[in-house]
Amino acid sequence: MNTMVSDLDELILVDEADRSLGFLSKALCHEGRGVLHRAFSLLIFNDRGELLIQQRAASKRLWPMYWSNSCCSHPRGDESLEAATQRRLHEELGIRCPLQFLFKFQYQAQFDATGAENELCSVYVGRCRQPIRANSDEIVDWRWIAPEALQREMAAEGGRTFTPWFMLEWARIWRDHRQAVLVI
To answer: Is position 29 annotated as part of the catalytic site?
Structure first.
């Protein structure tokens, strides 16, 4: 079953204060330098304190085959962040778990001349004990990694390639939220 978000799905346009400004298709939100829209990023840990990271499918328009956080996406239409995060956890990873909001950040990242991310992204963390059932339409590979090992991999030259939003949010988590994350 293909559960990928359609390029025609309506995403929520926002201003820098996260006030809704209307809707625009996913495809148009990501054209050129991108149009600011609402997004979320989930970091799921196991009982050993390891983070689930995934390698994005080759079919992804932006950052295919890059390693990234456990799960990320966009709420659709007037869908709440709570509903959207649980929907995507289940669609991408086959799991459900409670999530804790950490912070919100805005970024713009250019992938190529024709596409970019321009998002106001809410970051959540959670702990899961359920087995992962990764959706192969979304994820080509996944693994659990200790936070310290991830920190080393991100700092290494010539290492794995990570998505820009994951690098930005992980740097902030490591700097400002390390203790909160380690006790989840």
So the answer is: no
